[in-house]
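Supplementary Methods, section 5.1.

A reviewer requested that the exact input to the structure prediction be made available. We therefore reproduce it here, unchanged from the version used in the analyses.
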Amino acid sequence: MKNNKYLVLAIFILIGTMVHAQAPVFEEDVTDVAPIPGLLLALCAAIGIGVAKLRAKK
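The structure derived from this sequence is encoded token-by-token as follows.
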């Protein structure tokens, strides 16, 4: 009985991944999107924290 549960679970996982892995349809007239501004902010914050930690060690 336990093996049947694992087999059914594996089948459902495989079917689910196959359904979600279908290629989407892209339109031809899509405009380019600017990069996410939050990434630049996070990068600047990480650099600032790193510099502050290096200064604290000295």
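Residues 3-22+36-57 form one domain. These observations are discussed further in the main text.
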